[in-house]
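Lecture notes, unit on protein representations.

Consider one protein chain, 228 amino acids long.
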Amino acid sequence: MALQDYYAGNYTEDISTTSSLDENDVLPLPYLFRDFGQMPLIEQEALRLSRGRVLDIGCGAGNHLLYLQEKGVDAIGLDRSKGAIDICQKRGVKHTVCADIHNYNGKRFDTLLLLMNGIGIAGKLSQLPKFLAHLKQLLSVNGQILLDSSNIIYMFDEDQDGGYWVPGNMDYYGEVQFQMQYKNKKGPMFDWLYVDFNTLLTYAKKENFNCELIVEGKHFDYLARLTL
């Protein structure tokens, strides 16, 4: 709804989010329609590194796809939101598929893009091995996964010794529950995963991936590349 309103010129408010971290935040709609120059360095670098046949997982309004198309890259956008796919098509994205990545078994790809913390789709750390194993089935022999995420340990209280106070009822501090609201419509709570690089490295190795740190951002975020 938000994407469709913005595209139609009916921008009156942003998406609001609440989370299990007791955080209230706003997701500005113009940011969901940014061009390459407005993207953070991590996203820009991921797009530069994209090669071959590309699958943009959780493509949203199609920002990454439009840039890749302009560069002559064979890119497909996947999103489970019919509204998002509709906007992609209206903006000129040539190839899209409306599906849940967990159930998608299409062609093999040379690059899988999981940007804007796309690895969060795994939901929980315990589900990360299954998610990585599924992504592996979508990769060509020399394929790569480009993903960004954040180490959100900074959101917890720090003690004098430099340690952090993480509630004992949490399996992993990067597991967060979110709820989004736009105008009078409120979505269901959903699980989202932020994974620090060392933890990603450990889990990637268990699934026989090489895991490389490409770029570190200014706010505990990073871009990683996984290869078979």
